[in-house]
Design goal:
The protein is mainly α and 180 residues long. 82% of the residues lie in helices and 0% in strands. It has two domains: 97 residues, Rna Polymerase Sigma Factor, Chain: A (Orthogonal Bundle), CATH 1.10.1740; 73 residues, Arc Repressor Mutant, subunit A, CATH 1.10.10.10.
Length: 180
């Protein structure tokens, strides 16, 4: 068969001409393998990438642009496929590492200990609040009452309730930050 120009190649691939497809596979797969190997540094993975690129070319042949040289299309497709594979591998490794860390026996005990320490600090700060301020805060955050309900039950203005809540939150926040 005579050497094919880019238009003949694209037309052949679009028409699913197996002979044209075989010609471009034989002609371009070594250089695509070389590109993939540079990125992945693994021969089997590089071969898989080349297979994927040519399989995708076959599947999406109707989308080929006859103005773009086929070797440029294949090279770009190979690079993109390699980069996607690398990103996927990195995500899988990060996920596996995260899973391993959360399943380590010391991690759960460590988190429980941190939680108990933080709770003790919180309770200590809460005890140091002025009595009315602490009562308003507990009614709001522990009992879940609205500012209007607290105002009515304690017979204080709603603005006083907001002032107590703001003061309590500020002191708790500062107290926790200072103890760390």
């Amino acid at each position: 068969m005579l050497p094919l120009n880019n238009t003949d190649i694209v037309t052949g691939v679009r028409n699913r001409d197996k002979q044209v497809f075989e010609i471009i596979f034989n002609q371009f797969s070594p250089s695509m393998f070389s590109i993939a190997l540079r990125y992945l540094k693994d021969q089997e993975e590089a071969q898989d990438i080349v297979q994927d690129v040519f399989l995708n070319l076959w599947r999406t042949a109707e989308n080929l642009d006859e103005r773009a040289p086929i070797q440029h299309y294949l090279a770009r497709a190979t690079v993109n496929t390699c980069l996607n594979r690398i990103k996927k591998t990195q995500r899988q490794q990060a996920y596996a590492k995260e899973q391993q860390q959360t399943q380590e026996p010391g991690t759960i005990e460590h988190l429980l200990l941190e939680h108990k320490e933080l709770e003790a600090q919180y309770l200590s700060i809460l005890e140091k609040l002025p009595e009315q301020c602490r009562r308003v805060f507990e009614m709001s955050r522990i009992k879940g009452l609205s500012p209007a309900e607290i105002s009515q039950q304690l017979n204080i203005s709603i603005n006083t309730v907001y002032t107590h809540l703001t003061t309590a939150l500020k002191k708790i926040r500062l107290g926790l930050l200072n103890q760390q």
